[in-house]
Amino acid sequence: MLCWDQLWLKECKVTGSPVRAEVGADVTLTLEPRSMGDETVKWKRQETLVHRYRSQGDDPDDQDEKFKDRTSLFCDEFSRGNISFKPTKVALEDTGSFTCSVPKVCGQDNEDGVTLCVSQFTPLQLSWCRTNEKPA
């Protein structure tokens, strides 16, 4: 599926409903709530680690440099199943598929994803001409 809108210049392939944002915006990538405790939560963009929470805290080890100091999770809402991811000051290069994984008790990851479309906002420019005027 291809998403495109007159006001959004960047095209992106999506697997579900994309989250759209302008360059420089802060966004929240939300997934369906799930039951969990103080587990590991890992967010990736394609294969790149963008945020990891484990041992009751954020773990910046192996986090992609482009995402350092501009991502967060809603850790105080984990008990309600909120594992949403909040990248700030998004850039065009952030466009893509983000996947969240939470390990299950049996050792397999429970994964889900969302697509982020970041675009440079440009207002539409319209030209007007009167139909009864003759060209000069």
TrEMBL record:
The keyword Repeat does not apply. One of its GO terms (molecular function) is signaling receptor binding. InterPro entries: Ig-like_dom (IPR007110), Ig-like_dom_sf (IPR036179), Ig-like_fold (IPR013783), Ig_V-set (IPR013106), IgSF_BTN/MOG (IPR050504). Residues 12-115 form the Ig-like domain. Keywords: Immunoglobulin domain, Membrane. Coiled coil: none annotated. SUPFAM superfamilies: Immunoglobulin. Pfam families: V-set. Its main location: membrane. GO terms for biological process: regulation of cytokine production; T cell receptor signaling pathway. One of its GO terms (cellular component) is external side of plasma membrane. It is found in: Membrane. PANTHER family: BUTYROPHILIN (PTHR24100), ICOS LIGAND (PTHR24100:SF151). This is Ig-like domain-containing protein.
